[in-house]
Amino acid sequence: MIKISEVKKHNGETVEIAGFVKQVRDLKKMQFLVVRDVTESVQISVEKNENRKAVNDVISSLTLESSVRIKGRVNVDDFVKLNGVEIIPDEIEIANLANNTLPIDLTDFNESNRDLRMDWRFLDLRSREHQLIFRVQTTAEMAMREFWINHDFTEIHSPKLMGNPSESGAELFELNYFGGKAYLAQSPQFYKQMAIAAGFERVFEIGPVFRANKSFTSRHDTEFTSVDCEFAWINSYEDVMKFEEEWVAHVIKRVKEKHGDEIKAVLGREITVPKTPFPRITMKQAKEIVNSLGYVVPPETKGDLDPTAERMLGEWAKEKHGSDFVFVTLFPTSIRPFYHMYNPEDPSTTLSFDLLWNGLEVTTGAQREHRYPVIVRQGIEKGLIPANAMTPDGEVVTENLPQGLKDYLSCFNYGCPPHGGYGFGLTRMLMNLLGYKNVREVTFIYRGVDRLRP
Amino acid sequence: MIKISEVKKHNGETVEIAGFVKQVRDLKKMQFLVVRDVTESVQISVEKNENRKAVNDVISSLTLESSVRIKGRVNVDDFVKLNGVEIIPDEIEIANLANNTLPIDLTDFNESNRDLRMDWRFLDLRSREHQLIFRVQTTAEMAMREFWINHDFTEIHSPKLMGNPSESGAELFELNYFGGKAYLAQSPQFYKQMAIAAGFERVFEIGPVFRANKSFTSRHDTEFTSVDCEFAWINSYEDVMKFEEEWVAHVIKRVKEKHGDEIKAVLGREITVPKTPFPRITMKQAKEIVNSLGYVVPPETKGDLDPTAERMLGEWAKEKHGSDFVFVTLFPTSIRPFYHMYNPEDPSTTLSFDLLWNGLEVTTGAQREHRYPVIVRQGIEKGLIPANAMTPDGEVVTENLPQGLKDYLSCFNYGCPPHGGYGFGLTRMLMNLLGYKNVREVTFIYRGVDRLRP
User: Do A415 and B20 touch (CB under 8 A)?
Assistant: First the structure.
């Protein structure tokens, strides 16, 4: 059996293909099929006559989206509109006859029919456009892992079941665990740091995380694939950014090599491998840039950027530096978690960054605080740890640490080395690369507030 | 900064290393440290005198398992017991001073202290033996993906949150989902088949699954990493076994190439790349073999093999075929799920198999039933689908299908091609390769009935 994309190379030969029936035209003297596999579509053409009766009868009985195996002779002919090639079939075997009423139209993808398409996701995914998303995802993930492993990273699978709420009680799914309670991990953050404390030095994980977020926006979901890494013995958060930009460039390079032509043909998009280093601006500079462009970030963001400001910074980076990417650094302490390292030169900021890609945030990263008394003090300042967990002399009172953070914080009490890392949005990468605007389109089986099926 | 395994190549040069303090000997005239990184350990030796006071003072203050950066001169000398090399330090920087009371002894791993070691897993994992497990796992997973991708497989991330119980209500974790109910996936089975129905042709997934199993045995856990693949257009379950044995051999080959010497040095085990094809025996033959060896499988197994029989078959395969592996095929219908294809020559058996590795089951695989009326009838026979979901003429009455199976079964009503696949036990592979007897030792952070932390 050969792939349909290979058919044209076998002019005059007998080949076998298999796929789904995309079109049937049963005319008076001729029958035409279009059959699609994971690579391409091809026309099947056959005369109606007594010699061909077996094949003719099968074609007459076919319904759209049935799966078939076909054996026949390849005929390369420029008159065939579809790719200049057809197969004259000797045998057609119906592997599975589809119900003759399709619940969705496989040639029509838009926002208004999205919910119905999601109900019938396995049919919705049969189109070449949608298949391409997941082949690009496969290549991207392998390129990520390849880069990590070439840099001595170890893969981990951190637990998704947790005995205590992690970063915050909000957005947390709770479950019944043999009569007690467990929680679903919202991120592998604590566990990837635990791996650093365990001497793994460099780790990565690609796996699911869960957020009980009630939003219905185009960017929100309750379960998604998180891409994470963490590494020890850094000197600065700059080391983390340096690593990440090379990693991103490598991933996009691999996607372009393997799928660049097809992405252009199917989606009309050009994949551009970014130049490194990416521009870096501090949060202070970022605010000045948007101000100079006539925009003031509203106070509700509490010092963060809003989507409008991110978009403007994306345009600014493109115009000023010819870059689709820009790092924004030194985020305010007030909007970063207690485990980010504070800037020793200005403790109101953290040694952290976001990465914007075409004005869309795809990463949060930082150097982490690895010093036991310092991280405990930062937790106390954030109100996550009771004040009596530290003596007036700055000694940690381990027994007064909150139960939910004790295992995590203990890591820093036994020699955990300096480290940093980042999390990266897989779906946001696919949206950026392939031009999709909704996370539902680039997720295999989407999960949201009102979507738990199929 | 260089890895400690590289130190010996730099005799006479000044190098920088970083790692954890494994031993401190602070003698009258000399000080010795042993420092360990992810690759190796090395001795640090320094005289006590006025010129070395800064370094001497740092070493005197060091506690075990603190993390340090060391700059110094390499001295290759056969008199140094540890690897014939030492570093004479110029600078030692304490990155993180460990609490001077370690809760576990990092040189003593056994069953009796396992529970305490699991409490302090990040310290337990610092030993070279335990680190090796996860570097082997990393290589094995990459080899799996490499083989799949070279055979045109697409990676999927199937949802772990499900709106309906999947295969069975037992062993299922239930959670509160915005006031309604959701369940955690026990396997990606339905979704990998959905991907086949979606035209992906060949898919794989490595990801977490969840089982609310109350067992406390050495093999049971409530969350583990499942390794799964599924592919279309097979002619027989034999195609699935053929693929799997080549895949397994490739994975072991890569592990041997990358870690064979270290596994031998650290664990005293020889990795052997298996020859293919693996021997195949039917369940009927398997029973005859164990009978001929004087054992009768107890009736409680209801036609399945028990661990004793599996062990005997492992020994038989080794003796008779020189193979660590043996496929057992044609499992009874009564102990296989309704979606396995039944044997047309004997419907009391299924076109399915298990793979035994050293007498331990590591795989269940099968050709799946892809014909809509047939799978529905099999579901009715198993009591999972009400009888009124099929007319006396054998037509499926879609509206009478149970809600929980409707989305899954619909896949077979719209042209899903023939397909098969297997699931593979990652932890069992590590136990087999590295000689561990308990799943707790080869899981990064173990989850069981009474273990939800750290």
Answer: yes
Residues of B in contact with A96 (CB under 8 A): 370-372, 412, 415-418
A160 chain-B contacts, CB cut-off 8 A = 160, 208, 210, 223
Rounded to 10 deg, the angle between the B237-267 and B426-434 helix axes is 40
Q: What is residue B404's three-state secondary structure?
A: helix
- CA dist., res. A399 & res. A408, Å (int): 14
Closest CA to B420 of B247, B250, B242: B242
Query: In chain B, which residues have their Cβ closer than 8 Å to the Cβ of A371?
Result: 96
Number of H helices, E strands in chain A: 11, 16
Q: Which residues pair with A71 in a beta bridge?
A: A16, A91
β-strands B325-329, B174-177 pairing? unpaired
Contact A445 B416 (CB under 8 A): no
Q: Which long-range contacts (CB under 8 A, 24 or more apart) does A78-82 make?
A: A80/A43, A80/A45, A81/A43, A82/A34, A82/A41, A82/A42, A82/A43
Of A194, A200, A444, the CB nearest to B157: A444
Q: What is the pLDDT along chain A (454 residues), one digit of tens a residue?
A: 999 999 999 999 999 999 999 999 999 999 999 999 999 999 999 999 999 999 999 999 999 999 999 999 999 999 999 999 999 999 999 999 999 999 998 888 888 899 999 999 999 999 999 999 999 999 999 999 999 999 999 999 999 999 987 666 678 999 999 999 999 999 999 999 999 999 999 999 999 999 998 888 888 899 999 999 999 999 999 999 999 999 999 999 999 999 999 999 999 999 999 999 999 999 999 999 999 999 999 999 999 999 999 999 999 999 999 999 999 999 999 999 999 999 999 999 999 999 999 999 999 999 999 999 999 999 999 999 999 999 999 999 999 999 889 999 999 999 999 999 999 989 999 999 999 999 999 999 999 999 999 9
DSSP annotation string for A160-229: SEESS--S-STT--EEEETTEEEEE-S-SHHHHHHHHHTT--EEEEEEEEE------STT--SEEEEEEE
Which of A63, A413, A449 has the CB atom closest to B99's CB atom? A413
Does the distance separating the beta carbons of B159 and A445 come in below 8 Å? yes
A411 closest CB neighbour out of B20, B122, B232: B122
| Nearest Cβ partner for A417 among B96, B212, B233 | B96
Peptide bond into A103 cis (omega under 30): no
Best of A120, A445, A449 to mutate (most B CBs within 10 Å, chain B): A445
Q: Reduced to 3 states, what is the DSSP secondary structure of residue B30?
A: strand
Task: Identify which of B209, B251, B253, B213 has the alpha carbon closest to the alpha carbon of residue B228.
Answer: B209
Q: How many angstroms separate the CA of residue A321 from the nearest CA in chain B? A: 33
Phi, psi values for residue B30, rounded to 5°:
-135, 155
Q: From the list A99, A174, A413, which residue is nearest B414 (CB)?
A: A99
Return the beta strands (E) in B289-430 as ranges: 325-329, 352-357, 360-367, 419-425
A449, B98: Cβ pair inside 8 Å?
no
Q: Which residues of B touch A192 (CB under 8 A)?
A: none
The complex scores an ipTM of 0.95
DSSP secondary structure string, A284-329?
HHHHHHHHHTT----GGGTTS--HHHHHHHHHHHHHHH--SEEEEE
Q: pTM of the predicted model, to two decimals? A: 0.95
Which amino acid appears at position A83 of this protein? N
Which chain B residues have a beta carbon less than 8 Å from that of A21? 415
CB contact under 8 A, A414 and B65: yes
Which of A124, A127, A94 is CA-nearest to residue B410? Answer: A124
| CA B127/CA B87 separation, integer angstroms | 21
Query: B339, B324, B305, B342: which is closest to B423 by C-alpha?
Result: B339
The DSSP secondary structure of B243-289, one letter per residue, reads: HHHHHHHHHHHHHHHHHHHHHHHHH-----PPPSSPPEEEHHHHHHH
